[in-house]
Amino acid sequence: MAGPGARWKRHIVRQLRQRDRTQKALFLELVPAYNCLLEKAELLARISEKLQPKPNDVTPATLQGPWEEESGPDSDLVPSSSTLRVKWQEEEEGLRLVCGEMAYQVVAKSAALGALESTLEQRQSTLAALQARVAELREEQARQTRQVDAQRALNVAQRAAYEALRGRARLQEAALRRLEEEARDLLERLVQRKARAAAERNLRNERYEKAKQARMSLELKAAAQRTVSISESPNTIGDGIREEGKTLALMAEPVSPKSEAGEKWLRTFRSASATSLTLSRCVDVVKGLLDFKKRRGRSIGGASEQRYQSIPVCVAAQPPSQVLDVLDAHLSEVNAVCFGPNSSLLATGGADRLIHLWNVVGGRLEANQTLEGAGGSITSVDFDPSGSQVLAATYNQAAQLWKVGEAQSKETLSGHTDKVTAAKFKLTRHQAVTGSRDRTVKEWDLGRAYCSRTISVLSYCNDVVCGDHVIISGHNDQKIRFWDSRVPCCTQVIPVQGRVTSLNLSHDQLHLLSCSRDDTLKIIDLRVSNIRQVFRADGFRCGSDWTKAVFSPDRSYALAGSWDGALYIWDVDTGKLEGSLRGPHCTAVNAVAWCYSGSHVVSVDQARKVVLWH
User: Where is this region: Disordered (predicted)?
Assistant: First the structure.
């Protein structure tokens, strides 16, 4: 290995060689020019020597004066030496100037040549880098071309597989449609058979009841006309009374017509007192049976309806006046709010796909539970009359059912083809109604999560409410439609000025409160089916197509939220504005709820706020 001394020596040698090459390049053009100049100088020197006269060759002509120079005939042809010397000096000066100029040009051209050589070296290095880059790009192009070819081949294979899957999907869709048609036909036939069976059963039961009542009348007449001896002992009379009691018990039991026809009601009356007692008891039993069937709300032999227990009615509600609690309850806009029947449980639903349950304790809202599993934004929330279930409408084309105390959804009511905007429980158990933007209203059997009826309408449905046998829907075409659960068609249509945003039914089911985009609230008297009152106020405007307005529990006031965050309260009896409340809301109020006890009001807005009022 060479030491440090050898390295610096080699470095000096390289530097010297570099200097020699540089200096040589500077004089490559100067040396030939200088050599040429020397040759010309030698040539001029020889010519001057030839032209210069020798000392012994001085002729008289040379000694002549200026006045004699013109005397000779050839004097103008031979120049004098002084003239030649002057010319030679001039030429020498010119040559020197030319040599200087040429030397300057040589230096300038040498510098330009050095710059050009450095530029050439730079361009050569750049060219080499570009050539290397071109080679890399060509390799990359070849690789990309191979990848494109492979991807094209894969695309062709996938397209073939896709076409095959599409063909199978078409076949399966055709099979599905066929199966759905068969299922629909089977369902229709099943419903028809059930209807026929129910009609036949009702007819048999009616005939049986008539025959039973006729036999009972005959037996009563026969018992009243029968002569009874009074000489029997008290024990015998008691036996007779017990036998008559057994007879009435048998008469009260349901007996098939066949067994009833073969049985003879032969009972011996022991005394006149026993006869009169039996007759009065029998009449009371018959009246009791008939009264019981009337109280059940059905015809003789009809199917019974399971109804919820009645909700306590508020006697007097006070309008809210102050804020008790404010919460940022959801992660985004809050669309719905509803009180439970006990007035201490509250549900809120929003665009974050969550339903929060709150307890109203001491003028504060305390978190109770979060219901999860909704597939889209919550648009409507409702408690069943028992307070044990929560029903919510969502933007994922379905309504979902939760049981209070369970975080996950219990049932999903799917069947709509667009956003579900409203979902409400009916007064009968296991029954619900939903409205959607797909222009349908559906009735549901919650026990089987089955759609029992689909009502087609001509416009988007924004809200629904349910009475005993009536369903009322508010629509985007500025109309309120009434549907009877017992008939298939619309029974009545009430037009309003503006898109209907919400409906609220009073507790006595005699009045309907509607809110619409013409910035008015209307009270419809359902007994005469016309608009009884219209509420307006300066500054009140609906903030959205789902703004909700409600009655107070005693139907004394109407409450709604405005686009600017204020709450407006109207007196239903006088039709005047009771007042407006401005509080924590700074954006449009989407919904309001008034608890059944009449003590609290809750409002929700588009800025995630839930406000408790008293």
Answer: 54-81
Tell me whether residue 114 is in a domain.
Answer: yes
The domain in which residue 571 lies consists of 323-613
- Give yes or no for a contact between 357 and 368, defined as CB atoms under 8 angstroms apart: yes
The answer to whether 360 and 405 are in contact (CB under 8 A) is no
Same domain, 178 and 126: no
Cα–chain-centroid distance for residue 16?
81
| 51, 65, 160, 242 from 72: Cα distances, Å | 19, 12, 121, 201
Burial of 481 (C-beta count, 10 Å sphere; 0-12/13-18/19+): buried
pLDDT digits (tens, 9 = 90+) for 294-331: 343 443 334 445 666 655 566 678 899 999 999 999 99
Q: Rounded to two decimals, what is the model's pTM? A: 0.53
**Locus of tokens 């055709």:** 174
pLDDT of residue 443: 93
Q: 376: buried, middle or exposed (CB in 10 Å: 19+, 13-18, 0-12)?
A: middle
Determine, yes or no, domain membership for 408: yes
Last residue of a domain, one of 158, 179, 199: 158
Please check whether residues 450 and 505 belong to one and the same domain. Answer: yes
Highest mean pLDDT out of 67-81, 99-113, 116-130, 219-233:
116-130
The tokens describing 304, both together, are: 């019974």
State the angle between helix axes of 272-295 and 81-225 in degrees (0 to 180), rounded to the nearest 10.
170
Q: What is the 3-state secondary structure (H, E, C) of 216-269?
A: HHHHHHHHHHCCCCCCCCHHHHHHHHHHHHHHHHHHHCCCCHHHHHHCCCCCCC
Which DSSP letter does residue 408 get?
Answer: B
472 plus 360 within the same structural domain: yes
Q: Are strands 549-551 and 557-561 parallel, antiparallel or unpaired?
A: antiparallel
- Which amino acid is present at 160? A
Per-residue pLDDT at 123 exceeds 80: yes
User: Lowest-pLDDT range, 26-35, 223-232, 252-261, 284-293?
Assistant: 252-261
CA 409 to CA 405: how far, in whole Å?
11
Residue 77 pLDDT greater than 90, yes or no: no
The total domain count for the chain is 3
What is the enclosing helix (H) or strand (E) of 399? strand 398-403
φ, ψ of residue 65 to 5 degrees: the values are -80, 180
Q: Which residues pair with 391 in a beta bridge?
A: 382, 401
